[in-house]
Structure formats: C-alpha cells, structure tokens
Write a structure and sequence with these properties.
With about 90 residues, this protein is mostly beta strands. Helix content is about 0%, strand content about 35%. It contains no helices and 7 strands. The mean pLDDT is about 85.
C-alpha cells in the first residue's frame, strides 16, 4: 500500500501498490490531481506499508544530513505511555 500527505496535510490513500521497473519506482493507481513537487514548497510525504497496517507511529530520535540532498533518519516505535502523564499538573 502507498499513500501520501497533500499540501494541506491531509492523507490521500492508501492505494494498492506494486514494485516498479527499478528499485526506486512504485506503481500505484493514484487518482488525479497528483501531488506537485516543486522547490517552493515542502515535497509530499509518502507512506508505505502492508494492507493490514500500512503506517506505524514513530518517534524520530536522530536526523543526520548527508550532503545537500540526502538525510538519514533514525526512529523508534511510538508508545502511548511516553506522553500519558503530560496533561497532569506537577505534584
């Protein structure tokens, strides 16, 4: 499955997907209008996964830029217990 976040922050999809002809391609029946990719705005966020669970919440623990057009992102699985006590007043 594949989905993307549009420029308004709304999720579009998920759509059934299959591998493309190269390791960098995915074939999916995404309806028009397709997301626009320009240098004047943040590019669309793309999400991949299985039909049973195609996205997983995560906490970003590290972001390391590599040159001008690459980045390495490290994340851990999100756990609701991390923020369970945030709305309580201090004791």
């Amino acid at each position: 499955m594949v989905a993307y976040r549009d420029e308004d922050g709304k999720l579009v999809g998920p759509f059934a997907a299959s591998p493309g002809s190269t390791p960098y391609e995915v074939i999916a029946p995404i309806p028009l209008p397709w997301p626009e990719v320009t240098l004047s705005q943040e590019p669309p966020h793309v999400y991949f996964g299985t039909l049973q669970r195609w996205t997983y919440p995560a906490l970003i623990t590290e972001i390391r830029p590599q040159g001008t057009d690459e980045v390495t992102v490290t994340a851990v699985n999100y756990d609701d217990r991390i923020y369970a006590d945030d709305d309580n007043a201090p004791a």
